[in-house]
Amino acid sequence: MQKRIEVTTIPAGSTIRVGAPAERPKEAIDALLTLFAQNESVLSARLGLMEIQYPDGRTDFTYTIGIECSGDDASIIKEAIQAVSGVPDARWPISIFPPTTPYFSKEAIVFYKQSANRMKPFAQLLRKVGFRSGSSESGS
Which of 32, 43, 88, 120 has its CA 20 to 30 A from that of 72? Predict the structure, then answer.
């Protein structure tokens, strides 16, 4: 089966239900974790499950991935699509949505969160030469 990438919309009159999946798409998550570790603009990512109930009675499920970025969302989303299209098919297709409601429930699984210790190269250089940000020492 050949992978397809589609841009779709949910038709008017459809009902969506969101939650957290019991089964995770491991290969896709691993590929995304590798991608996000190399990109400092990715702040967090979450995984959900969406059930779409169409007006004609059909029902589809899709994993939902939400990526929160501090920079160019479009570029990261393109890279994420490329990363997940290179892995074996999961139980359901994977869709990328903004990481906000109505696409994710409170139970959505945060599978990536940028480490608080992660510093940009310029900040690391400043620290190396002795520059520290924040409040001054008491008694100064």
Answer: 88
Q: What confidence tens digit (pLDDT) does each residue in 52-74 have? A: 999 999 999 999 999 999 877 88
Averaged pLDDT, 85-95: 88
Alpha-carbon distance of 53 to 9, in angstroms, equals 13
Rounded distance, CA 109 to CA 95, Å?
15
For residue 94, give the amino acid letter: I
- Tell whether the model's pLDDT for residue 24 goes beyond 60: yes
Q: Where are the domains of the chain?
A: 15-128
Q: Are strands 42-53 and 59-69 parallel, antiparallel or unpaired?
A: antiparallel
- Class in CATH terms, 15-128: alpha beta
Question: How many other C-beta atoms are found inside a 10 Å radius of the C-beta of residue 85?
Answer: 13
Calculate the alpha carbon distances from 74 to 2, 59, 71, 94, 135 in Å.
Answer: 24, 29, 9, 17, 36
